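FW: tagging you since you asked about this chain on Friday. Here's the raw sequence from the shared folder, copied in full. Didn't touch anything.
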Amino acid sequence: MKIKEIIVVEGRDDTTAIQRAVEADTIETNGSAIGEAVIERIKHAQEKRGVIIFTDPDYPGQRIRNIVSERVPGCKHAFLTKEEALPKKGKGIGVEHASRESIRAALKAVQQEMEDEVDSNITAEDLIDAGLIGDAKSKLRREIIGKILKIGYTNGKQLHKRLKMFQISKETFAQAVVKMKEEEQKHC
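HL: got it, structure written out here
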């Protein structure tokens, strides 16, 4: 599998894992203190070939994703679940621990960020009604719906923003809520 876009990852181990799974070029941010030179390389890559942001499913990875996304509009996003990013042995969480199959699946399900956010008609009330905010099981539900919609895990505040950013329609959201409720039953 060959990837046209340049994939933005956190470090060398992520590059190694990506290149074991697919044929692709990467730009490494080398942590969350992303320098101006790295941002310029990413902007150039976005203009020439497009960019896929593929960071770890943890706080630092989300922080890097937000910085790059804010500074380089129109990026695509690939997400792994925390389970897919856990090591077989030892500690840590990251792209470097994911299987080839998980990396390929995440890259096939890439989401396009839209520069002009469109109102998806999904309201905060819809999120509350679905139990995604303000409920004891909200965190689990957001993990499940993030996996179903392939938009990654978010906290309650960020979920609404991400639904709009990826232009998830109200119908798609409603279908995902049904699947989420079925999946939630398996966890209980």
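FW: The chain has a mean pLDDT of 91.
HL: agreed, and The two ends are 37 Å apart (CA to CA).
FW: great, closing this out.
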